[in-house]
Protein: F420-dependent oxidoreductase
Organism: Kibdelosporangium banguiense
Amino acid sequence: MRIGFSLPQVGAHAHHYDQLPAYAKAIEELGADSLWVSDRVLAPVNPTVGYAGTDEIPEAFHSVLDPLALVAAVGTVTQRVTIGTNVLIAPWYPPILLARFLTTADIITGGRLITGFGTGWSPEEYASVGVPMKQRGARLEECLDILDAYWTTNPVQHQGEHWTIPPTYVELKPVQRPRPPVYLAAFAPASFARAGRRADGWMPMMVPSADFDPAFLTAGITAIRTEAEKAGRDPDTLDTLLRVNPRPGTTVQNIIDGIELAREKAGINHAYLDVNFYRHHAEALDIAGQVYSAVRG
């Protein structure tokens, strides 16, 4: 079982970046397999859509460190651990700039980058970056086309609905060949179909609790495998990375039991704990140590 942990990047953690490099090194020394960043640009005062099915935006989102900068920064202070994005909201970014950054990040990390993309859920965030939210699925598809071209061809060119790239030389390529792994978040039929057609893996999320039921994981995995087969792909090549999001009242044992149940019932072999719920780096490291010891034994 591979186990990872998020980088503390929101809320109180965002005001103490000076502690984050030491945290990343400690997580790597612990033996963990991966470190993760997430993407947030706004904390609307009056949100149209709240976070995770609520009517509100968590106070922690009032302060957020940039995920792209963190990937590069942490890549320079670690040696072994995989560094991933779960998830970048790809439709917010011009794909040519995203491709340049992700290529650079894979080089900085020596081929340790995992790219995870999603489409987000906040109308206010889309409005703030000048992108129509109704185009998010089409823009993600086109972004994936451009990233694939940027990483695997030279010269690169693209003529699409949203972006045009004239023929251009791109001789700098990622360390990983033909490209870094691409994972997609998916929670609806259209996104399951996209993941089955285009992704190396799926990025679901769970909230651990005493009554956690992994049935949604098995259902999602089945749906994506079915879509992969329809697309002529081998479904056995698709991976699943589980994000574990604790909430107030979640115990360490809830987290451990949830991960174990996901492994037993859904075949999950890579999970990571979001530690941003915890107020201090020291607390996050303590919880990470307990979870790692229990899961890896």
User: Anything to note?
Assistant: The radius of gyration is 19 Å. The domain at 2-296 is CATH 3.20.20.30 (TIM Barrel). The chain has a mean pLDDT of 97.
